[in-house]
Each structure stands twice: as C-alpha cells, then as structure tokens.
Amino acid sequence: MSLPSRLIAVDAPEASGAVPVRFVGPGGDTAERAMAWAQVNGFTGASGQMVLVPGADGGLDHVLVGAGQTFDPWSARALAAKLPTGVYRLEAEPEDARTVTLAFLLGTYRFDRYKTVERPSPRLVAPEGLDVDEVVRIAGACALVREMVDTPAADMGPLQIETIAREIAESAGATLTVITSDALLEADYPAVHAVGRAAVPARAPRLIEMGWRLDRTELPLVALVGKGVVFDTGGLNIKAGAGMRNMKKDMGGAAHVLGLARMITQADLPVRLVVVVAAVENAIAGDAFRPGDILRTRKGLTVEVGNTDAEGRLVLADALTRAGEHSPDVTLDFATLTGAARIALGPQLPPLYTDDDAMAEGLLAAGRDQADPLWRMPLWAGYAPALEAEIADLRNDPAAWAQAGSVTAALFLKRFAPETGVWAHLDIFAWNPRARPGWPEGGEAQGIRAAYAWLKGRFPV
Q1: Fewer beta carbons under 10 A from the terminal one: N or C of the chain?
Q2: Known catalytic residue at 313
Q3: Can you tell me the distance from the alpha carbon of 144 to that of 156, in angstroms, rounded to the nearest whole number?
Q4: pLDDT digits (tens, 9 = 90+) for 327-356
C-alpha cells in the first residue's frame, strides 16, 4: 500500500471537487435542508454517527460526522472505513487539522496483499499549512508495522525482516550488520542461536544490527531492541492449536522497532541510533532446544530452560546485552512477550515497565496525547526470587508462586538491560482482535507513536 497516495495536495486537480466532511455536535449549526435530512436518518451529532447528505443533482454534497459533546479529533480514524470511495476535505479547526489527518490516514490501512480484487480507499485533501511529510512518515511507519505483523510467517521469515531492515538502513545512510546461523556462536549470541537453530537453513536465526550516525559522539545514543520470533510453535513445549493460530505476529517487536527507527531517521532527530533485532523461528526439529537445557547468554549469565515457549526473553537477553555494549542514553525494547500482559490489561493497553519515573511519565503523557495508550506496571522486586534457579543463574519459567507473568518477564529482561541511561520495556500485543471502523482485525502498531513523540520532545530538532 502507498500511504502518500491517500493524501492529495491542496492544489491538485482532483482537490477542487473534494466533498466536504463536517463535524457537528448535538444541536450544531448546519443548513436547514441538510439538518432535515440528518434528522430523517437519525443523526443527532453523537460521536460515531455519520450521514451522507445528497445534493440537488442526487450526488454526494457533503458528509456530516457526529462530534459529540466534546470533539475528539482522533475519532476521524473511523472515517476511512465508513466513507464511500472518493476525494474528501475535512473541515476541522486548524489546531485539529494535523490530528484529524493523521487519524484518517491510520484508518485507511488495509492488508490486501493476498486479495485478488482491489478495494479502493477514500482519499483526503491535505489541509493548508499541514506538515505533510511528518504526517505521512508516522502513518507510513505504522502501516509498515501492521503489514509486517499481518504477513504470514511463510512470507515474513528472518530473511524478510533482514531485507526490510536493510532497506531502512540504506534509505537512512545507516550501516547494517547481520550475523546468522552458526556464526552466532562464534560472535557470542548463544541464546539467539539456541532458540532459532531448529529452523530450516533458509530461515536460520540471525542478529540484525543497524547503526545510524554512530560517529557523531556529541549526540545522545538511542537503542531500540526488538523481539523477532517470526513464528512461535512453542518449541518442544508445543502450543495448542488455538494458541499457535496467530503466532505469525510474534515478530511484532521487531516490526515496531524498525517502524520507529524509520520515523526517527526520516525526521532527522538529533540522535545516534542503534537498532538490534533478534530474528528467529521457534521451530521443532531434532536439534531444538529442550526443557532442562542450560543456556549461556552473551552477558555470561546462565539460564535454565523450564519452558521452550518462554523463548522471547532468551533472544532479548542477548539483544539487550548487545545494545548495552554501546552505552546508550535511552533504550526501548518492544516485544510480544507474555499472554499475562493481556490477562492484566487486555489487547488495547500495553504494559510499560521502567524504573525511571520521568521516563514513565513522559511516555504515558505522550501516549495520551497521541491516542497511543500505555499503562505503567511495576518492576516489583518482591517477585525477583521467582527467577532463581537451583543449577543456573536464572530460569526462564518463573516459579508459579509469583503468578504475575508479565512482571516476572520484565524482571528477567531487567537483568540484561543496559546499565547506562534509562530503559523501558513494552510488552505489546501488536494485534486488534476485534474489528471496528479504523481498526481492522489484524496487526496493530502500539506504543511507537508515543515513543516517537516522547523522543522528539526529549531530543528536539
């Protein structure tokens, strides 16, 4: 899909015939004829309502959209799924123009790669004075994340993630290094190798690292770390069929950090950037890692494997250790890590873990401002003993008494997080399980708009 094609320049020929979209609250002013038509159709101005108002010639004259008692510009995300194909102009207050446009573009996403019939989307005339590049790059990055997550594992393996990372790196003038297969052992990424070694050679595990502006040592360093498990069978602790059905999305963390990296580099934020992605398939074969195995990690800590379905934290252990070797000022990791996070907060509200109060407050505030919500969860030290093992430094399946699976997973990652700067972990779902206008069932970008807004405020251009 091409998001810029959804946005039309003000002076483009087709812009002259754009259909106005007007946001009207209860009792709002509009033409008498239009209001009569709206009332016949049950339109009261309540949020979420929409009515198409015909012109004298029978064509579409304009569209009325319910603004509710208090207009939420993010509600425009639903419009693209409701409007007929055509060209539209949103009549919003100047201070809402950017948000309304971005929301509309986010709502245009459709995963139609495998559809044989094209479904045209409505298009929008860009409001005057809009920073089109900024809006398009944010919407485009979110679309990239969602498309990567939606793509079946057969077509989104470790090599495909590497290819996308390479395209982003080349576009930004960044470096990209990839270590794969048995070379991971030589380069000291034993946990990444262990989790991914059972996959067929064409889907061999790899550690992907992108570096941008690393020679600009006067700039702060941001590290992004992503879990890229392209498909998770559960390993020898195999998942049930229902639990395995959507495991193509288990590389959502990798997709998120690549989308965020693209936003950062395209916006030319004054930072250095390191992106570390561990891309593996947790497959089942004769050499798959086993329950009871003890793995050594890049940090030197040993981990007793109690459950091969708790593999994400193992690959992140090596990836976070690598990120820490760059002494970052800020580290963000994204991972579809635990089902416990969904039990605690559901699919729409990703947990945020960090020991830094200012970082937490900044990310939460950015999430509220960008309609990209997060919820802070505690790195509760009282549960740390649940990670202790009798014959290794750690265990990857916390003792059952602790119960809080998302918290204990975050505590496990904390043992490998960089010791410099600030670190936050986002346990994302990366998926919409309920289809609704603007949010089709399938891949979803969670937390990257909040993270980008926070980084942009912390390191302004």
Answers
A1: C
A2: yes
A3: 13
A4: 999 999 999 999 999 999 999 999 999 999
